[in-house]
Amino acid sequence: LRDVYLMPEKAPAGYLDHVCIDRFTGAPMDGMLFSEAPLFGAKGKLELEILVERAKVSAGAKKAFRAALDDLVKGRLALGAGANRGHGYFKGSIGGDL
Question: Is residue 67 part of a domain?
Fold first, then answer.
């Protein structure tokens, strides 16, 4: 996997502020405010090259992996944090054989 650096044509529309919630008390934690600048609708290209020794991977594992990739490129599977807020979903295509 190669690193990807998206260079948006324009700056993000804004920032989203978040506060960390204490998992035991449910209260906001002091000093734990952070911001993010999401790239909603950003255009970019991400190439994911996966090399697999075919002899060591079962047909069932390849089928399951292909299904996961299909879910990813059709926007049914998110990567990273914030999926419950709509972050990390992709559109794309799969090329090559598994």
Answer: yes
Residue 32 CB burial class (10 angstroms; 0-12, 13-18, ≥19):
exposed
Name which of 95, 85, 92, 94 is nearest 40 in CA terms. Answer: 85
Cβ atoms 58, 98 nearer than 8 A: no
State which residues form the domain around 28. 1-44
Q: Is 69 helix (H, G, I), strand (E, B) or coil?
A: helix
Q: What pLDDT shows up at residue 41?
A: 67
What is the token pair recorded at 13? 């529309």
Query: Rounded to an integer, what distance in angstroms lies between the CA atom of residue 70 and that of residue 83?
Result: 17
> Mean pLDDT for each 10-residue chunk of the chain (98 residues)?
61 77 93 81 69 77 91 89 80 79
Q: Would residue 98 count as lying in a domain?
A: no
Tokens in use for 23? Answer: 């998992």
> Looking at the structure, do residues 19 and 57 belong to the same domain, yes or no?
no
Q: Is residue 25, in this structure, part of any structural domain at all? A: yes
What pLDDT does 30 receive? Answer: 92
